Amino acid sequence: TIERTLDVVKDIEAYIDKIPEKKSHLVNIGKDGSENANIIVDLLPAKRRKRSDLDIINSMIPVLSRIPDAEIHLARPGMSGDLQSGDVSVNIYGVDYDKIVELSKKVKEAMESTGYFRSVNLSYKMPKTEIDFVPDQEKLVEYGLSAGYAGISLRSSVYGDSSNIYKEEGQEYDIEIKLDDSYIQVTDDIKDISVISRKGIIPLGELGFIRQVKAMPAIWHRDKARIITLEGYLSKGALGSVRKILNSEFKNIDFPQGYGYFYAGDSEHQQEASREIGKAFILAVILTYMLLSAILNSFKYPVPILLTVVTSFIGVFYALFFLGHSINIASMLTMVMLVGLVVNNAILLLDYTLLKMKEGLPVKDALWLGASVKFRAILMTSFAVIFALLPQLSAHSTSKQSMGVVMIGGMAASIIFSFVFVPVVFWYIERFTNRR
To answer: Is 124 helix (H, G, I), strand (E, B) or coil?
Structure first.
């Protein structure tokens, strides 16, 4: 009932008022049914609070979970200000809708049992009870009425009729006529609604019978198949690793032929984005190799330079692991950016080495001289990038933090391997080609 919904909202509001980071909140009760309520909390700007929105959400979960007979979902706003869809969206599809409902409940239990979700929202809702009026055709003929007229009379009595207009001094006012709420409280009141017939005023119950039935739930389709969507909101873990865990859990669910599941939403978009970013990374490596080959006038010397891209990922993965970040779209985009940055150290080193080799120095002596002369230049340029990115680690956006972590880890590894790995590879390549 609306009263019970209001009581739950008051309990939640009492807790929200105690949150120091709260600026204001807005409550909407009765959307899509009296049992639903929506509370939007506006927080102080990120610079004026110590906790992120995700930290506040995690602190609310234990308190709100103690409210009885209430299903509560917490969501963060997206870039547009609208509430985000779940971090993990799973669509259950099939033919028979009742079977889909049964499977979706099993999938929800499997997702909740993993412990990675703060809440899992099911798009299927228990159908409400509705009142149907079934007309008796013989009675309608007897009283000279149609089923449409009886339906219009019923609807006008319950929801009102605003087809009449009152005009006064050039202004028009709608006139709505409907029964008082006290006359439509129970099912028996519907039977007593008056209808004008050729035999006079009669109760609606004379024209048929009233029954209570379950309403038809909203049915969603995708690719012409019926689906039920589950939205999971992560409390910990990365999307990729959680998906692997879910796939192993879903194997324990018996999906009949013609039934199954697939990922949608952010999870689906990340798959597509990962493929495209992978293509961009390969293209960046190829273009960098072509550019270095043209500058150095050689096909072999760009090889040790490009190997710094591979070794930089050692620093990237260590930085992500120890700083507690996961691989996401932002971090993968930064890996593509690294291709053009980490090669600079090796270029500085080998460019001077090649210059001294042309002057007649042996390979080893040229490498030692190049490393010693360009040591400060490489450190200065690399540390300039690293120090410039340190403020990024304290950003409130996890995407910005991931970008900073990837860049710092990659540049730090580039400093080390430019002096350790690149000269060794260059020496072996030079030695192998000279033997031939």
So the answer is: coil
> Which class for 216: exposed (0-12), middle (13-18), buried (19 or more C-beta within 10 A)?
exposed
Predicted confidence (pLDDT) per residue in 109-128, tens digit: 888 888 888 778 888 777 77
CA-wise closest residue to 13 among 30, 29, 34, 31: 29
Q: At what angle do helices 422-435 and 302-322 cross, to 10 degrees?
A: 150
* Res 377 pLDDT > 50: yes
330: Cβ contacts below 8 Å, ≥ 6 apart: 399, 400, 402, 403
How far apart CA 113 and CA 420 sit, in angstroms, is 47
Q: What are the residues facing 210 on neighbouring strands?
A: 133
CA triple 252-256-258, angle to 5 deg: 130
Radius of gyration of the chain (CA): 34
How many other C-beta atoms can be found within 10 angstroms of the C-beta atom of residue 5? 17
| Three-state secondary-structure class, residue 36 | coil
Retrieve residue 406's tokens. Answer: 């990837």
